[in-house]
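Researcher: Go.
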Amino acid sequence: MDALIAAAARALATGDALGALKRVALRDDPPALALRGIAMAQLGEHVRARELLRLAARRFGSHEELARARCVVAEAEVALAMRDLAGSPRSLGAAAAMLEARADRANAAQARLIAARRLLLLGRLDEAAAALAGLDTQGLPAALEALAALAAAELALRSLHTGAAGAALTRAGEAAQRARVPALLAEVAQARSLLDRPAARQLRSGAEQPLRLDEVATLLASGALVVDACRRGLRAGAQWRSLARRPVLFALAQALAQAWPADVARPVLIASAFGFRQPDETHRARLRVEIGRLRAVLAGLADIEASERGFALQPRDGREVVVLAPPIDGQQGALLALLCDGAPWSTSALALALGASQRTVQRALAELEDAGRVRSIGQGRAQRWLSPPLAGFTTILLLPAALPPA
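Model: Structure:
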């Protein structure tokens, strides 16, 4: 390695992208192209960064597998920053295996960490936990240790393990201090602030109360019958019954829970579940059918008693009934929660993360754009979507993920 390449690499390690470019900007040999790509990524020029990294990987000869594997890892990190989640993780896994075989522990760990962060964005928490569990950062650079601790903290937050999240953030803060990278310090401070912001609203007996993440975890563990409007399901202690794909049943459950212990009139239930303001006999018959289906879902947790004017929820074992409402109302909460991370998302990546079709996501984005809540940049395949940060609360509970069993 020549002196300029070594100096540029040291500059990049400390986050000095301009300092690195000063040394290699006029060179087009493969090592210089790779460093230029990393520098452009640090400056936010992701499209150019990917071009340079791909060019560098092609120009490294067949006998330079280690260098090519490092380029693959760097390009995967840029793709993650661009929220390009559609690519196959096989090439990244192969690069990680190559780096481990050649004793390049730092870059191998970086590859594993990128794979885990991609799984977190997709809401596949179990797979992300398995990936992070096999990651050993002992003896690696402090910046990498901080990133691994941040990923562990995010996993714990998404799983509502606030104690583990706090411990991981402490480790991340200590490692970021040792690394002395301002961007890392800011990221740790931002993640730590999530613990202190409201994450949801508790609706109980007509009263509304904001809850932090630790208070949400306490509520879910309390044994109360919680109608969770953030994850669209019902929880009572260790029992979780998802209604994410049964919106009519969830609307009925939420209406009954918000009125508990009082009953709810039939016209109100019909309006909540079906949207009809002037119900007729067919709507009442349909309501009876849907209430029967909801009784089956609630079996063992609560009963639904018919009253003279409608229906009332009767929880078993003396449980209280609570509605856990998201911090923002509306059907597009998960979409806004993904977009407000500050990164530009493509429609395909949003569809992949939400488990929805691209057409469904496009319709939702069009509605949000008309309302002035999101904006797009670029056109065609290069089009990306952005949203301003949602200040004052955290959207952790709105991110796509299944609640883990208690």
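Model: The chain has a mean pLDDT of 88.
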